Amino acid sequence: MIMDLLKNWELYSWPSARFGQGFAHLLSLGADVADGRYELDGDNLFCMVQSYETKPRDEQEFEAHREYADIQILLEGKESILWAPREGLSVSKPYEPDFEFYSLIPGATDLVLRPGQFCVFMPDDAHAPCITHETPCTVRKAVVKVKL
């Protein structure tokens, strides 16, 4: 898991050029971008823009992916994302194409994502997004899915 300011994305060594393409797309997004799926390279690289209300922690589960990394940024709002290593977690919903869900655990790391920051979650990173931080709010988020 990596969390940093979006402007610092080039400081990292990424496993494929798709990450650079994904970050370039995120940097080009305006605040008025419509919700939906944006194809960047078919199923190899795409961006989903979504709006939603944050939820209480107890309504969420960890998720992890096997085929994709997530690059997540907020366009508006603020949310908590819980993180834990996937290894050793209890599966709550078995694997479906690219998703597996896990029960939350005490002591998970609480990340607070704000506009201008990004998080990257690799397949071993279980994460529980969309969680209310301090007070519920509407979030606009872009998630780039990078096929590994």
Oligomer: single chain
- Strand content range: over 45%
Shape: globular
In the CATH scheme, the class would be Mainly Beta
Radius of gyration: 15 Å
Q: How many domain regions?
A: 1
Rounded mean pLDDT is: 94
Q: pLDDT below 50 for ≥5 consecutive residues: which ranges? A: none
**CATH homolog superfamily:** YhcH/YjgK/YiaL
Largest sheet: 6 strands, antiparallel
Q: How many E strands? A: 12
User: Order of strands in the sheet with the most strands?
Assistant: 1-10-5-12-3-2
Alpha carbon gap, first and last residue:
15 Å
In short:
The chain has 148 residues and is mainly beta. The protein contains one helix and twelve strands; from the N terminus they run βαβββββββββββ.
Question: Topology, please?
Answer:
Layout: E1 2-5, H1 17-28, E2 36-39, E3 45-53, E4 62-64, E5 68-76, E6 79-85, E7 91-96, E8 99-102, E9 109-113, E10 117-121, E11 125-131, E12 138-147
Antiparallel strand pairs: 1-10, 2-3, 3-12, 4-8, 5-10, 5-12, 6-9, 6-11, 7-8
Name some characteristics of this structure.
six-stranded antiparallel β-sheet; Jelly Rolls; 8% helix; globular; mainly beta; 148 residues; 1 helix
Structure description:
The chain is globular. The mean pLDDT is 94. It has one domain: Sandwich (Jelly Rolls). It has one helix spanning 17-28, and strands spanning 2-5, 36-39, 45-53, 62-64, 68-76, 79-85, 91-96, 99-102, 109-113, 117-121, 125-131, 138-147. The strands form three sheets. The chain has a six-stranded antiparallel β-sheet with strand order 1-10-5-12-3-2, with helices on one face. Strands 4-8-7 form a three-stranded antiparallel β-sheet, with no helix packed on it. A three-stranded antiparallel β-sheet has the order 9-6-11, with no helix packed on it. It contains one helix and twelve strands. Strand 2 (36-39) and strand 3 form a beta hairpin. By secondary structure, it is mostly beta strands.
